[in-house]
Amino acid sequence: MPPAAPSRVRAAAPDAAVFVRFSATDAAEGGWDVADTVAASRLVAAAGADLIDVSSGGLVPEQHIVPGPGYQVDYAATVRRETGLPVAAVGMIDDPTFGEQILADGRADAILSGREWLRDPHYALRAAAALGDDVPAPAQYVRAY
Asked: What CATH architecture is 5-112?
């Protein structure tokens, strides 16, 4: 991705939030690492990115990744600490309390959880309830509860 891409998105959609996703590491010997991601994040931020979505791996066959809850959070925390930019953390963060703790600890500014939404399209309601929030179901869903 050219570093100027965020400025092009901003020009086309001036009111949109511009997120850029980086794979913080390709988890392969001699490959892309979190220091590269920090440098690239600074470039896209200068071009108008609002938030860096920090993921990892899946780029090369020889990668060495050990997935588990929050396994990519440290990458997001490093990018945040080194750049001062807002970051989103990902990586099997499907427990709402765990996600809240990551935010409270200042390790990320947002949590993104795509696979959990695929498993449970009502994840937002379940997460809110787990955190003690009373979020009403959408009107068209009320009769299902």
From this structure: Alpha-Beta Barrel (3.20)
